[in-house]
Amino acid sequence: MSLDVSLYKVKKVEVFSANITHNLNDMAEEAGIYNALWRPEEIGIKKASELIQPLSEGLKKMKADPERFRKYDAENGWGTYDDFIPWVERYIEACKQDPSAEVHACR
């Protein structure tokens, strides 16, 4: 007979990281995804799976009417529709790949 003991520690591992300019906040607001992106904790979003629907709906709105959203392009070029669309797409894909991942947004 023997005794086996072990100690385990769950270590957080970052599975996705992305940065986008706050110059896109008005565009995100118009698409209905500002809170989901910049303030997820304020609307109860904790897991990546909870971001998929709102971000997908916002992306659909933006793609359906590009000119509506291009008017929010930053005049200085730092934050445009053409930057934001692929960024949101990548974020959605990351959420689908790791739906149980914890969401953290740093402003």
Account of the 3D structure:
The structure is a single chain. The protein is an all-alpha fold. Helices cover 47% and strands 0% of the residues. It has five helices and no strands. It has helices at residues 25-31, 34-38, 49-64, 66-70, 81-97. The model has no long low-confidence stretch (mean pLDDT 94).
Counting H and I runs of at least 4 residues, what is the number of helices? 5
Task: Please give the domain count.
Answer: 1
Structural class: mainly alpha
Largest sheet: none
Helix content: 40-55%
Average pLDDT confidence is 94
- Listing every helix as H and every strand as E from the N terminus to the C terminus, the arrangement reads HHHHH
Q: What is the compact description of this entry?
A:
This protein is mostly helical and 107 residues long.
List the defining traits of the structure above:
single chain; 107 residues; mainly alpha; 5 helices; 0% strand; elongated
How is this fold's topology laid out?
Elements: H1 25-31, H2 34-38, H3 49-64, H4 66-70, H5 81-97
Helix pairs in contact: 3-5
